[in-house]
Amino acid sequence: MNPAASVGRTTSQDRVRQVTVLVGAVIAIVGATVGSGAFGGQPIAEAAGGSLSATATPVAPDSPAFSIWSVIYTGLAVFAIVQALPRQATDRRLRAIAWWVLASMLLNALWIAVVQAGSVGGSDLVIIVLLAVLATMFVKLVRMNHTTTLPSVVTDLTVGLYLGWVSVATLANTAAFLAIADVGELGLGATGWSVVLVSAAALLAIAYGAYGRRRPALVIPVGLAMAWGLTWIGIGRTNGPLVDETVATAAFVAAGVAFLAPVVATLTARRR
């Protein structure tokens, strides 16, 4: 075993953490799946008066983009199982982030509940907190060496995809809140502000890539998820009731930047 993989003996706190995160993950995933309308009921796109639908604002991703949640939920379920394995009780990376992962899952379930209650402003607050939790995990994982293969791969891939997608979703959620808050177009107009937002996403992807350049297994999934979301923003603006060629072009360019930024950053770091 890698000596960096574990720290000390298994404690009662480790066992409590393992069981709590596993049970909490099941509750959070089932609750989020039911709440999103996967088994009937009101889909998220129809909740809150359709404020978060694929055509609500120029930066709303087209409907197929949300299929990434099935991948993220699968990763979270696998993470919950892996961290609960007896031999993983003392893994130092799992010890450092397991509670944070559980918090992120509960926040996601809360976000769905708030949207179903019709509060777009409340959902924006929740998703910003969720993004902060995921960013905290990202920083922790970048600063820690990998331990054994299974927990390291599962953790990096899941957190990376989760962070990348929520980064784009936060921008879309904020745009939806500003739209229903009737703040006006603040001088730039809907197209101008949409370009600013997708450009901000591209800059954020560059920042993630630069910071996590020595952790390709973590940062490349971030870029992939952001590129996925931005691509579907672009596709959504090329058809349907909210066509905007300027936003579509900006979104496609931003998607390319999000995809390439972590790859270029990690390759550059390896050459040094």
UniProtKB/TrEMBL annotation:
Localization: Membrane
Topological type in the membrane: Multi-pass membrane protein
Gene3D superfamilies referenced in this protein's UniProt entry, alphabetically: TspO/MBR protein
Transmembrane region(s): 21-45, 65-85, 97-119, 125-142, 154-180, 192-211, 218-235, 247-269
InterPro entries the record matches: TspO/MBR-related_sf, TspO_MBR
Keywords associated with the record: Membrane, Transmembrane, Transmembrane helix
Principal localisation: membrane
Pfam families named among the record's database cross-references: TspO_MBR
PANTHER family with a match to the protein in the record: SI:CH211-161H7.5-RELATED, XK-RELATED PROTEIN
UniProt similarity note: Belongs to the TspO/BZRP family.
Name recorded for this polypeptide: Tryptophan-rich sensory protein
Taxonomic source organism: Cellulomonas wangleii
